[in-house]
Amino acid sequence: MASADFQKRILVVDDEPVIILTMTAILERQNFAVRGAADGFAALLALRQTLPDLIISDLRMPNMSGFEFLSIVRRRFPHIPIIAVSGEFVTTEMPAGLLADAFLPKGGYTPQQLFDTVARLIAESPIRPHLAKADKAPLWIPRSTAEYIIATCPECLRSFPIDDHSVGSDVRTSDCPSCGNVVRYVVDSATLKMHREKQPSLK
Q: What CATH topology corresponds to 9-123?
């Protein structure tokens, strides 16, 4: 896949060392040069040293989450394609509003699917069309608990947790802790139902 004369560089960001080791072994067999980072802070330090051709990042990490890391990357390095990976959230498809170019459910994809996604993103043009800001914040609901949700501010693109236990289709608001913008969001009852159905299988 990658040229024998010039190795494409990939930065893998994950707080689980075994994930980094496994993904490094898989991608190096395809002649990619792979570097790992344990969280968003380590990844930003790596970006200061060398810019990769593609980033693969987990979303749920300590210190700096993948949501926060991706918001910084999209603002500072919009030309770098990003693959988001997670097994913690109720979705198997590319979520609306996720600051990434592709999404893979952790443990739910094959090496060939990873290769195909990497090859497609590296081959595509890095120029992205300007997207109008949404009037409601994209939401993520953790699979392990429904005690909080994660919202992404449409204004500053920062993500933050919201302690929300209610159910319904009404529009709610929360102040973004980063920029103070009033974030409007709706908790989809269908998504919460999916969450409850999946909970027993996770025990």
A: Rossmann fold (3.40.50)
